[in-house]
Amino acid sequence: MKLEKEKHDKREKKKIKLSSKDREKEPNGKHKPSSKVKQSDSPSAVSSSAVKCEAGDGDMHEDVKADPSERAQHDGHEKSGSLEINNNIEKNNNKQKTQSKSSKERHNRKEKSEQTADVKPVDGDSNQADEGQGCESEATRKQETDEPQAAAPVKIKKKKVKDEKSPDDKNQPSGKKRKKQSPEHDKAEKSKNIERDEDDKKKKKAKKEDKKDQESDKWKWWEEGKLSDTQKWSSLEHKGPYFAPEYEPLPDNVCFCYDGQPVKLSPATEEIASFYAKMLDHEYTTKEVFQNNFFSDWKEEMTPKESELIQTLSKCDFSQIHKYFVEKSEERKNMTKEEKQVLKDEASRLTEEYGYCLLDGHREKIGNFKLEPPGLFRGRGEHPKMGKLKKRIQPEDVAINCSENSKIPEPPAGHRWKRVQHDNTVTWLASWLENIHGRPKYIMLNPSSKLKGEKDWQKYETARRLKMRVNSIRKQYRRDWKSREMKIRQRGVAIYFIDKLALRAGNEKDDESADTVGCCSLRVEHISLHRRLDGQEYVVEFDFLGKDSIRYYNKVPVEKQVFKNLKLFIKYKDPEDDLFDRITTINLNKTLNESMSGLTAKVFRTYNASTTLQDQLNKLTTEDMTVEEKILSYNRANRAVAILCNHQRAAPKTFEKSMQLLQEKIQKKKEQIEEAKKELKEAKKAHKDAPSDKSKKLLEKKEKAVQRLSEQLKKLQLQETDREENKVIALGTSKLNYLDPRITVAWCKKHQVPIEKIYNKTQRDKFAWAIDMTDENFQF
DNA sequence: GGTTGCACTTAGCATTTGCGTA
DNA sequence: TACGCAAATGCTAAGTGCAACC
Fold first, then answer.
1. pLDDT digit string (tens) for A233-281?
2. Neighbour count for residue A183 (Cβ, 10 Å)
3. pLDDT at position A214, please?
């Protein structure tokens, strides 16, 4: 009861903070009509809620909350029955849920909700023994025979050699087209060429050796033992973070204008103005919340004189500043190769100096060694803090973590660190508090590092352990659906959703963030119940904004008991009430941990994603396929996971155009094939009429041409299918975070697909442990 | 048992790089 | 060689979950 009250109070607090005016607005700032507000404002609406369900077990009103035309159907999804991804992401992701309620009404609602509780404790949970822990070592550890990284450096080398030509050489026509020169000139040219070739060879050799060194230097931490769960390192040394460059004031000819008059701003005020000016092209600056947050934070940084003068944002003219930055960006784009190379060299130097640390004697790459520069906060979705000023991080804000006996990083001249600590139970190198939410941020290692890799490996091992326990866990949550205790029923249904739909846990959120939810924080307004829908029984329609304000829309047939429970959970509740008001992620995870050590809601996502990949790969791959077809199968399996996990992306801006180009290419190829076939027919006839060696050769040539063109066509068509199917689906997130890489490596080895066709360089670095240790027999 | 802070993973968008093609 | 595009990489927001504390 107390828990429910607290949940309610929290929500209440949040609602008060977020003005109803803001909440009822569409992302574009326009007010949208809100029937839901009306409904909940009326006292008679108390039990009617946005969730429509039948009265009793009889016929049901089949109500769909949003315009069905807005929802793209996506069928054929095995796991959830019918997962639907909305193609119109931009539109739908920004869709805001209308919510408004007076606190008095909310209080009444809480009391009503209390009436629904059965509080007879039933001991339904069974503790189950743990299984093996930690990272299992693979039975077979095979050395990687391919050199997946070879391709890219060779190409770079080629280009470099080309670039190193003297200016004279650059202008010389090459090869056969060269004009005849004098013998002296030829001789000089020849010796030049020899020189160049030798130089080339030397460089190639050096590079090869470098690479060899790097390979042999590569730390195979997975072949060593782990320190302990708490101790993360024995020694850690680094250079500290790299600070963002100081602000460069605008040239005198670039003016900020207020009320039509040019105003020279102080450097601090001007810097913040430049943050806004840079974003003028972006939709953010059209949003009222963004504008208000920016303006109030900006005002705080102004001098008293500036603050007195600048009273309204609408009178501020940033256009000159905006133009200046656009021009600067153009200039950068139009730099010569040499100028670009200077910048590139400087960046490499920085990475070399700050981008690596020494961890237990091994050189490890740092993930983010550059401190975040100041700017304006860009939240995702309808974030109440968008537009606020992200302040410049000073050395005095930064805590350093390294070993006691190491060389302590030097703070910038005239400054000192916030503190220097030597805590080997954490993995971060530096940390600071960001000023928007007051939360800590960290500088940590790259995913290719031991610390990250080990944790990743462990994650997949936990998911594999779940595979062994999942049947008994499923039996248990089915039993819980019939518990006499409301809390246990809710928990049973929540775990069912987490398992079946790969929903996130849904922790309680602080008051000042976008209104997004996960499983445990679902509200009544996020589901609609349909006794029958599209020929299926007991359908739950989900519609809510999840992490990053990505819309989750799905119509799922569920078991009858789940459906009945959901009806019970929403009884006497209003749209904004919690669907699972008796549980939190903490007690849900506690229950899961009792079933299996290390089990949390998150593990189900990893487990279901990896299982789906393995099943789909088995189903979609056959031996007679070409490598291209196998890759398409892999992408399809990957896509099934991305759909399950609801990993969406905005369609690429150039999507339509590039598809059109591809289609034109396909058409052209088809025409070429037709032409080639005609020629083949003629060659056949010629050979039949007057057989000779020449005619035979010609015939063979034409046959090969048709075959080659047909293969090219097939490749293009596969590309077209793949691209179309990937339009709004992001494959990368699941590949990097949810799919046990050993499944991929085993599949590549079994089906002779080069690993670099599936994993790029970064991914191969991250999954080096899996690539090294996995053979083709690996089973998740 | 709940709250809070901290440490870490997961996530999509923005920017840069480099490849294929005209 | 320049250009346009897709892929790769970088950036940082937004989640999860644990442990200390009350």
1. 999 999 999 999 999 999 999 999 999 999 999 999 999 999 999 999 8
2. 7
3. 52
Cβ burial of A320 (10 Å; 0-12, 13-18, 19+) is middle
Strands A430-433 and A399-401, bridge-based pairing: antiparallel
Are A401 and A539 in a shared domain? no
The total of structural domains in chain A comes to 3
What CATH number did the domain enclosing A704 receive?
1.10.132.10
Per annotation, catalytic residue among A284, A354, A607, A738: A738
Whether residue A285 contacts residue A321, with contact meaning beta carbons closer than 8 Å, is answered with no
Q: Is the CB of A509 under 7 A from strand C?
A: yes
Strand C: which of residues 354-383 in chain A lie with Cβ below 7 A? 367-368, 370, 372-373, 375, 377-381, 383
- The parent domain of residue A566 ranges over 2-122+483-598
Per CA to C1' distance, which residue is closest to B2? A3
Annotated catalytic residue A738: yes
How many CB atoms are closer than 10 A to CB A264? Answer: 11
Q: Which nucleotide is nearest to A445 (CA to C1')?
A: B8
Cβ of A445 less than 7 A from strand C:
no
The pLDDT tens digits of the residues spanning A66-82 come to 222 222 233 333 333 33
Residues 6+ apart with CB under 8 A from A439: A433
Compute the C-alpha angle A159/A151/A717, nearest 5°.
105
| Distance from C-alpha of A767 to C-alpha of A770, rounded to nearest angstrom | 5
Residue A532: pLDDT above 70?
yes
Smallest CA–C1' separation from A442: which nucleotide?
B7
User: Within 7 Å: CB of A148 and strand C?
Assistant: no
Helices A585-595, A486-501: crossing angle, 10 deg rounding:
80
Mark whether A622 and A581 lie in a shared domain.
no
Residue A670 has pLDDT above 50, yes or no: yes
DSSP state of A360: T
Are A272 and A318 within one domain? yes
Tokens of A512: 């000042």
Question: Which two tokens mark A246?
Answer: 């100081």
pLDDT attached to residue A301: 95
**pLDDT of A408-444, one tens digit each?**
999 999 999 999 999 999 999 999 999 999 999 999 9
